[in-house]
Specification:
By secondary structure, the protein is α/β, with parallel strands linked by helices. Helix content is about 45%, strand content about 20%. The chain has helices at about 10-30, 35-45, 45-60, 60-65, 70-85, 90-100, 105-115, 130-145, 160-175, 195-200, 245, 265-280, 320-330, 345-355, 370-380, 380-390, 420-425, 435-450, 460-465, 465-480; strands at about 120-125, 125-130, 150-155, 180-185, 205-210, 225-230, 230-235, 255, 260, 305-310, 335, 340, 360-365, 390-395, 400, 405, 410-415, 420, 430-435, 455. The longest helix has 20 residues, at about 10-30. It starts with 8 loop residues before the first helix and ends in a 5-residue tail after the last helix.
Length: about 475
């Protein structure tokens, strides 16, 4: 006897119709066969739970978003607003073509520009911060000096001595007449009290939660952006909490990477903040009031930069593809850091192909995990990498949270995208690409310093794992889509 036999027809019939609709929609989405079959089996074996999980985590949001007229209209409006911005940065584009024309770096930049519309501009200055002490000390000073506006977007905003200090600075600036807009990811920050942050609202600040719809809870806003006066920008791996400075109670060290930029590239960070802010509030802050003024000096100065972003709604998953172009075309070396490693198959194969072709491919992840499940799952991906010649390192001095890539000593990318399936396919992410050999060499030196605190994984390490451990790791790999 089936459980449906116990339900009245007026529940059974609509349920069956919805189930058939979901199955038909799943088939018509033309996904990878493995993905389609996985969801189909879930809907067949556990139909009620399967449909719940499908509506929460399985729908094709790129296709759904394309059908939303207001979303299309806003992105057209955003591109129109940015057109004068890129026109006044045309000299930077010309300089980039002169330096990189005919190389894979030019193809990389063109790929990113076609996918999300953000082209090459300059930063007057770019500074890499490998410690929380450096990053937050500088951020406090910049926030305290703000004159016009402060736009902040973080995945996690905790409730401790660091957030108290930053909130006090924001309070003082709001009372001085500075506009403050603050956006935090609802689920990422839900564990921490927001009373102190919300107390800024009666003073004139605007504080909003991002991604609050139940249907979107599986697709987090993982970006970290600060824009100050249209002149200073921050992005990278650091969230906000004291543990990101000193490691907290869990870790001896919190090793992360953030970047501070000034100049025109701040406009691209502002455009990304504006898109999320508009989605929540319908207030447009991608206007000349919030974008950088005309470039100072000439295009021969400054660091050539480009921001790339993606989300589950995006058709191309452009940040992931940028990694694939860089890894797949590098001639000498590609070094990558990420706390997690549950790769999407295209990028995984690209890493293997690059190493087999003789490129020095190195990957570093944390050896002291904050989450055991993705750490265990990562081990199942190591053997093909090692056999192809990729060097894999586990950072053991503390928790490694950096998301970086350097290629050929020419380019470096720093941002928020992990090398796991959630970042590569589901979350809202960004990476700041910098076409500058000095910054690339700086990041390579940091990578080499981290190697000194790492264990290099070998095939012998994999062979020494017991059968129960290998089974555990493989089973966790099956759960990777929901980790």
């Amino acid at each position: 006897m089936h459980w449906l036999d116990f339900l009245p027809w007026w529940i059974v019939v609509p349920y069956i119709l919805v189930w058939l609709y979901v199955m038909a929609t799943l088939i018509m989405e033309d996904r990878e066969p493995a993905d389609t079959l996985a969801w189909a089996f879930a809907l067949l074996l556990v139909p009620v739970l399967g449909m719940i999980f499908y509506f929460i985590a399985g729908r094709d949001w790129a296709t759904i978003t394309e059908k939303k007229k207001w979303m299309r209209d806003y992105y057209e409006q955003l591109q129109a607003a940015l057109k004068p911005f890129f026109e006044r940065n045309a000299a930077a584009e010309r300089r980039f073509r002169q330096e990189y024309g005919g190389t894979y770096v030019e193809r990389l930049a063109d790929t990113m520009a076609r996918e999300d519309g953000l082209g090459v501009v300059t930063a007057d200055r770019a500074e890499i911060f490998p410690t929380g002490q450096e990053k937050f000390s500088r951020l406090k000073a910049d926030l305290a000096a703000a004159q016009k506006f402060i736009h902040i977007q973080y995945f996690i905003w905790e409730d401790d001595e660091l957030t108290d200090a930053l909130t006090e600075i924001l309070k003082e600036r709001v009372q001085a007449g500075v506009q403050v807009r603050f956006l935090y990811d609802y689920l990422g920050s839900k564990h921490w009290d927001k009373t102190k942050l919300e107390a800024l609202v009666p003073l004139g600040a605007k504080v909003e939660k991002d991604v609050v719809s139940i249907s979107h809870l599986n697709y987090r806003d993982h970006r970290k952006i600060v824009v100050i006066d249209g002149e200073i920008g921050y992005t990278g791996g650091y969230n906000v909490g004291q543990e990101y400075v000193d490691g907290g109670e869990r870790f001896a060290v919190w090793r992360d990477t953030h970047v501070r930029v000034t100049g025109q590239v701040v406009g691209e960070l502002e455009a990304l903040f504006a898109a999320r802010w508009f989605d929540q509030t319908k207030e447009d802050v991608c206007t000349d009031e919030y974008l950088p003024d005309r470039p100072r000096g000439d295009a021969e100065a400054g660091v050539l930069c480009q921001v790339i972003a993606q989300s589950v709604e995006d058709y191309w998953k452009s940040s992931r593809r940028a990694h694939m172009v860089a890894v797949g075309n590098a001639a000498k070396r590609v070094w990558i850091q990420s706390p997690y490693f549950i790769p999407e198959v295209g990028l995984y194969d690209t890493m293997i192909n690059a190493s087999l072709s003789g490129v020095d491919v190195r990957f570093m992840m944390t050896g002291v995990p904050d989450k055991k499940v993705p750490f265990w799952a990562a081990w199942t991906y190591f053997r093909p990498l090692l056999k192809a010649g990729v060097k894999v390192y586990l950072y053991e001095a503390g928790f490694l949270h950096s998301k970086t890539l350097t290629a050929d000593g020419q380019i470096t990318a720093i941002g928020t995208m992990n090398m796991d399936i959630r970042s590569l396919r589901l979350h809202k992410e960004l990476m700041l690409w910098m076409y500058d050999d000095k910054l690339a060499h700086r990041q390579e030196r940091l990578f080499e310093d981290d190697i000194a605190n790492s264990h290099e994984v070998t095939l012998m390490d994999l062979d020494s794992l017991s059968l129960p451990v290998r089974f555990r790791n493989s089973f966790m790999r099956l759960l990777s889509y929901f980790i």
